[in-house]
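Quick one, probably user error.
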């Protein structure tokens, strides 16, 4: 098996093993780690269709994480994909209204981030041992709602690690916030910032680039890493579930071996749909990647025009995990469509950092041919939840509804009847008020936890343990700060 090494999208010039890239998180020049080549699947889709999720995940991830031994990687996978998932299949497929919904929310925090963040702590602590790292790893994470809780749950009380999560104080759902601020673990800290997700993400990246602060912490026995999707250890596990979805359709004889599928993903930071693009480049028969945005439609405009422009009004929506104007993982796609030209990638990212926008060339725009961009506003999102429920009795969350609406729009525009897999990224229980109000505005008169009980009744889906756990849980994290105070808060937590 060919060794896959990693380097920065911005031309740092150094080669890293997979474990080193996982451990460091972000390249020292501010770029993201990318594989020197995307490996091809070395098992047939028929062979993969006979495997359980754990076995399939190993076969996909071994191709990217080549310096992990078979035993190391299998132990990480076994520890991650265990009884914390409430379904035997880990990521089941449900069919509704002519589309297949890949339910990625059956983990401990009921959002798709569990699929990667259940694994990342094990990949990281294994990487630390492999590379002789004796310092304490400090995980810095910015979250728009879901990554934070999933990362906290993954790293809580993991020896040799600490984790600090920053979230927009007024930019997440009440359930999302309660999940984070009730998190146990002596090594955890949750901070509400006075700003939006982009502010939090930019602040974390700035801290990563602060060499003086890094040196100060290094002298005290600490080293920074990231649990955001900028970490390649987040992206690789996400590739697996697209391969899984295809092979389930194959096993159930809904498609034939080699048939094309489309994939539709609700998209904010671009990591989840980028993982599907990687899967396509590994040989998975994906025809079109449908990128679904909410009212913060910076990605839709990019696919339409070739210009990425974050200079616009920021909207707080009912799908907060997509309320993002700086889609960090898009940098990895830019690197690829620029012909792996690190100088060009660094130039474009410099323009984004400087004046808030950049424009790709006509030849680079041809590299976006696999993608279709669409968006749903708040009214369309709400109406889609109602439509799906009233048609089939299936209840979806706000983010999945954005993807579902855009998927229907794509089908109507193109007449493409290729089977489509929609990434269902969060449980409707995480956004009960928005979901229930969409089904019937009368529900707005009730409390969030009353709505949880009502949702259980109408959906016939058991209330997840993650929700039951926070009903009466005490708030353990009350820290708030301005954006320019983030570094001080971290220093205080590390004492």
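Nope, works fine. Designed sequence:
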């Amino acid at each position: 098996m060919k060794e896959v090494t990693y380097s920065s999208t911005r031309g740092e010039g150094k080669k890293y093993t997979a474990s080193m890239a996982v451990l460091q998180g972000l390249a020292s020049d501010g770029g993201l780690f990318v594989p020197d080549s995307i490996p091809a699947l070395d098992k047939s889709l028929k062979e993969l269709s006979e495997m359980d999720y754990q076995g399939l995940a190993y076969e996909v991830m071994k191709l990217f994480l080549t310096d992990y031994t078979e035993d190391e990687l299998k132990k990480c996978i076994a520890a991650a994909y265990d009884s914390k998932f409430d379904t035997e299949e880990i990521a089941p497929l449900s069919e509704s209204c002519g589309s297949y919904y890949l339910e990625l929310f059956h983990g401990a925090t009921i959002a798709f981030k569990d699929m990667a963040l259940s694994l990342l702590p094990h990949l990281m602590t294994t990487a630390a041992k492999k590379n002789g790292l004796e310092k304490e790893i400090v995980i810095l994470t910015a979250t728009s709602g879901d990554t934070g809780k999933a990362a906290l749950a993954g790293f809580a009380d993991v020896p040799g690690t600490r984790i600090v999560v920053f979230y927009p104080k007024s930019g997440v759902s009440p359930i999302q916030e309660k999940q984070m601020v009730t998190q146990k673990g002596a090594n955890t800290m949750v901070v509400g910032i006075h700003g939006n997700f982009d502010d939090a993400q930019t602040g974390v990246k700035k801290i990563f680039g602060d060499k003086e602060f890094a040196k100060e912490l290094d002298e005290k026995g600490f080293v920074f890493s990231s649990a955001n999707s900028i970490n390649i250890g987040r992206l690789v596990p996400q590739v697996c579930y697209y391969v899984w979805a295809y092979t389930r359709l194959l096993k159930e004889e809904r498609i034939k071996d080699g048939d094309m599928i489309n994939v539709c993903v609700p998209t904010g930071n671009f990591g989840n749909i980028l993982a599907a693009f990687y899967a396509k480049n590994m040989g998975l028969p994906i025809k079109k990647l449908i990128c679904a945005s909410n009212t913060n439609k910076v990605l839709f405009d990019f696919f339409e025009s070739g210009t990425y422009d974050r200079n616009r009004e920021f909207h707080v929506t009912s799908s907060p995990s997509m309320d993002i104007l700086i889609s960090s993982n898009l940098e990895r796609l830019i690197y690829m469509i620029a012909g792996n030209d690190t100088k060009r990638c660094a130039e474009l990212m410099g323009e984004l950092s400087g004046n808030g926008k950049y424009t790709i060339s006509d030849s680079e725009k041809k590299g976006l041919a696999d993608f279709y961009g669409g968006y749903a506003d708040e009214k369309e999102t709400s109406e889609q939840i109602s439509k799906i429920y009233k048609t089939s009795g299936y209840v979806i969350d706000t983010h999945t509804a954005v993807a579902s609406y855009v998927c229907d729009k794509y089908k109507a525009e193109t007449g493409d009847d290729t089977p489509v897999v929609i990434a269902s990224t969060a449980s409707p229980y995480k956004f009960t008020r928005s979901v229930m109000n969409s089904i019937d505005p009368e529900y707005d008169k009730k409390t969030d936890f009353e709505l949880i009980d009502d949702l259980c009744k109408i959906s016939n889906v058991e209330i997840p343990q993650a929700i039951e756990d926070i009903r009466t849980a005490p708030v353990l994290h009350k820290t708030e700060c301005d954006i320019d105070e983030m570094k001080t808060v971290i220093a205080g937590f590390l004492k």
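DSSP finds 22 helices and 15 strands in the chain.
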